[in-house]
Amino acid sequence: MAYAFPPAWIPTLPIRGTSDAFPVRRIYCVGRNYADHAVEMGHDPDKEPPFFFQKNPDNLVLTGEFPYPSATEDVHHEIELVVALAKGGTDIAAEAALDHVFGYAVGLDMTRRDLQAGAKKLGRPWEIAKAFEKSAPITEIVPASAIGHPSAGAITLSVNGEMRQSGDLAQMIWKTGEVIAHLSGLFELAPGDLIMTGTPAGVGAVHRGDRLVGEIAGVGRLEVRVV
């Protein structure tokens, strides 16, 4: 069989301590998974079923540069713990969910906030705000076999040396195992899936020339320049 044109490349992430690459299948994102962020976005922080949106695998960027996108004047940073799956399935039990995790990374869910606000007002999907090119800067994956499954620890982001976001993984409303379990009831998960688990309060605008530094204790450090 011949292709009508060359097939798209497979997005991959490096794995700490090995020359192997992690092939990325899908990117799921959890919305409003920290109570303080829910409040700052004008929502009730009481625990409710998690909701999800997606980015595209080719939105990943590993170069350390985030090109300021078109069609917006208000791009926000959102620092997040990223979960990388080694096993998939449907209706995964929460108590068994961590057995499906390959490792973890530090990621940014860059968001065209003005376009998101417009979509919310009209009751439309968020893709134009979330799934644009280069919207997911991310670090290498660190295997769970090396660090375990982080459930607590500082998650921070600074812009030009000024702290913007500062929280703790323990503040997640839905924990990693619960997120995987709930998501597997909606989609059939598979090896190569990434899950961005939400962001703490302090999200804000970035501008060309800004230097972003995100860190999650025990997981890694992400440095990004807005260009």
Descriptive account of the structure:
The protein has 227 residues and is an alpha+beta fold. It has one domain (16-226): Fumarylacetoacetase-like, C-terminal domain (Fumarylacetoacetate hydrolase, domain 2, Alpha-Beta Complex). Helix content is 15%, strand content 32%. It has 5 helices and 18 strands. The chain has helices at residues 35-40, 113-122, 127-130, 144-147, 176-184, and strands spanning 12-14, 21-23, 27-30, 52-55, 60-61, 65-66, 75-77, 79-85, 101-108, 111-112, 136-137, 142-143, 154-159, 162-168, 194-196, 204-205, 211-216, 220-226. A 6-stranded mixed sheet has the order 4-3-15-8-9-12. Strands 6-18-17-13-14 form a 5-stranded mixed sheet, with no helix packed on it. A 3-stranded antiparallel sheet has the order 10-7-16. The longest helix has 10 residues, at 113-122. The chain is globular and about 40 Å long. The mean pLDDT is 95. InterPro entries: Fumarylacetoacetase-like_C, Fumarylacetoacetase_C_sf. Keywords: Hydrolase, Metal-binding. This is Fumarylacetoacetate hydrolase family protein. Residues 27-227 form the Fumarylacetoacetase-like C-terminal domain. GO terms for molecular function: hydrolase activity.
